[in-house]
């Protein structure tokens, strides 16, 4: 059987399952839903927080770093390109007791991040990566620092093994690897063999696998096949926060996967929208924010394109209740609801700063405005 717990510094994560940071998704309400289904087991990471915005105390960012009183450990993911700013943000987290664990984002493939040399573009610059990790680990003191990354920029610029060794040398506590390059974006198939190679290359610290985990069985298969110490689940839980209940059951040796009826799914949808309204302190804004989740929750069910459109333009809980009440709520879980969800497209080209690939050790390509000033991806 695979390992049933994961050690992240002083924090024991049981089972070894982590909710991947996802921009606009893994806010406090969604983390609450996932934790409720898991019985509080696992590790649930905030969406991406930019270090510049945190240091400048941007209002949106300060909301995003709010944790429910029951969230333990509190886990923040930071994005940064400038070592000095990253160091300031980490020390702020420690000094003001804002979190118990810090994860660093070196995996985001979206153009607005990579064009500034951040996310999955950054590990190509080995010295810059080392400087950022050193500042973060030094500033974090007793707090564990982990990192999430991809295989590299593209098949001609693979970085994950070099980055893994640098991380170990600089005191990073654990590494999560998404088995895709930035060029793949979310297309194709995740390379689980790369996760196994990283585990062999850095046996000193835990390695977590990420990519193509659509079910609890996938998570168990990944760990058995790669020898990784835990899994990071992202798109697989979109519209399915109960997946974390499935994962707990799979690792604890019992229980069939959840197969909710549409009535049960609708109840989760209603609670999700209500939690967002409470969190944003505005019902209309909360319901509007919930709209993006409608297609994921209703995937595979016989809902109809017109009803999906109506659900996707709701602006009040009462309106949402009325529309959910019109559905055929007795529908059983459909086979079409399993499998891939969320973004599945690839990209042929990664947007990078001018001259970024000319020298993997020169940091001159990092511009003064490389630090994003807004959080959430």
From TrEMBL:
Active-site annotation: 108
Alphabetized CDD domains for the sequence: DUS_like_FMN (cd02801)
One MF term in the entry's GO annotations: flavin adenine dinucleotide binding
Chain ranges of the DUS-like FMN-binding domain: 19-319
First-level EC class: oxidoreductase
Annotated function: Catalyzes the synthesis of 5,6-dihydrouridine (D), a modified base found in the D-loop of most tRNAs, via the reduction of the C5-C6 double bond in target uridines.
Official protein name in the record: tRNA-dihydrouridine synthase
Organism in which the protein naturally occurs: Streptomyces bingchenggensis (strain BCW-1)
